[in-house]
Recover the amino acids of this structure.
């Protein structure tokens, strides 16, 4: 049963490759290009283009979903399988990470953080399959960053909108414009950081591939016929750089996006005010309950 | 004359992209300092190597932000701006 999910997970990545092979026109030589637009949907304000990055990100979402189902089918309490061990290890690690970075109150954030880690990591790693990595398109990352921005604002408003508005006047009311700018800069910097890292990696990879092709053409020009055109230097050398730019950088940026989300959400949350407000509410509720009790007694009498 | 105008546009965009990437100096120096201090900290207390490393990577990523802003501007100047400016020039001449 579980193997079906693994096959489905692999199939969804294969679907992304198939879509790329069938619908994206082959570029002549090596070129730096943005995401290919498959088609645009007519919309009232602005047309909605469906791009390669979006399709790839849907495929990654499906792959992660089926991978999670594969890891968590047939859970047992005794004689656990390796799959279950891996699943438990992931859950434990993420819960520990959330607990150390955000505190006990935010423990329910662990699934969200794990989702960000998985989606971002697998999106960056999808470039290893020759796909257009969704994380090198600013629109995808900006969507995630805006989601995080709403989360931050929601948790800042937890202790009432008045305290949220008052936080802009800290430490000086004169600095309110700067505080507003820094508030808006949070999602922008998160989006640009992730997108810039992945995109710069892929651009550098393309530049190195072009450079190595030219170099090997000029070095091996003495060979006869078609042998001279073959780019010998492109065997193996770009793979070494790919370890940094694709594997390390992609995983690191996923981790950083998740950690920054946790820090911003937990840092913006006014814990003391929220506790004071909760206490006040409880006292008020208790007073009300006592009041209604005495009133009830009076009515009985 | 038109060739000269387009040449100036392309040259200006390339120069601007190059100048924007001077901002790469800042994050380089900053991250170097961060890593140096992290090495010192690990040398002093080898038992908290994991914590120091993860905090250092975190700080490096945040310090990189200004460099990435410059990178985004350079990419826009190279890939987006020339087309826009040439279009603008053409509409100005045509109109």
């Amino acid at each position: 049963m579980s193997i079906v999910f693994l096959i489905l997970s692999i199939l969804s990545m294969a679907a992304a490759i198939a879509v790329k092979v069938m619908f994206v026109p082959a570029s002549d030589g090596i070129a730096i290009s943005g995401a290919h637009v498959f088609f645009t949907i007519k919309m009232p304000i602005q047309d909605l283009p469906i791009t390669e990055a979006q399709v790839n990100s849907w495929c990654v979402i499906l792959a992660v979903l089926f991978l999670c189902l594969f890891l968590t089918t047939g859970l047992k309490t005794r004689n656990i399988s390796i799959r279950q061990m891996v699943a438990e290890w992931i859950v434990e690690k993420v819960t520990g990470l959330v607990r150390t970075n955000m505190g006990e109150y935010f423990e329910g954030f662990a699934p969200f953080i794990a989702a960000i880690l998985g989606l971002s990591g697998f999106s960056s790693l999808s470039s290893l399959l020759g796909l257009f990595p969704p994380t090198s398109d600013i629109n995808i990352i900006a969507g995630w960053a805006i989601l995080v921005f709403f989360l931050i604002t929601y948790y800042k408003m937890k202790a009432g909108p008045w305290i949220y508005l008052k936080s802009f006047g800290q430490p000086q009311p004169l600095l309110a414009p700067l505080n507003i700018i820094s508030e808006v800069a949070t999602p922008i910097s998160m989006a640009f950081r992730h997108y810039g890292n992945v995109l710069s990696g892929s651009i550098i990879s393309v530049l190195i591939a072009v450079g190595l092709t030219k170099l090997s053409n000029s070095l091996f020009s003495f060979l006869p016929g078609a042998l001279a055109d073959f780019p010998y230097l492109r065997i193996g050398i770009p793979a070494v750089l790919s370890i940094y730019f694709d594997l390390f950088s992609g995983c690191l940026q996923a981790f950083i996006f998740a950690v920054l989300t946790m820090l911003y959400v937990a840092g913006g949350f006014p814990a003391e005010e929220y506790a004071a407000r909760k206490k006040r509410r409880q006292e008020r509720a208790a007073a009300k309950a006592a009041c209604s009790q005495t009133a009830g007694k009076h009515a009985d009498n | 004359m038109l060739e000269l105008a387009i040449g100036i546009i392309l040259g200006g965009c390339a120069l601007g992209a190059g100048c924007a990437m001077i901002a790469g100096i800042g994050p380089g120096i900053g991250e170097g300092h961060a890593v140096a201090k992290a090495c010192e900290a690990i040398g002093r207390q080898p038992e908290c190597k994991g914590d120091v490393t993860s905090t250092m990577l975190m700080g490096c990523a945040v310090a990189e932000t200004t460099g990435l802003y410059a990178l985004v501007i350079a990419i826009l100047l190279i890939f987006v701006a020339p087309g826009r400016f040439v279009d603008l020039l053409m509409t100005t001449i045509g109109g």
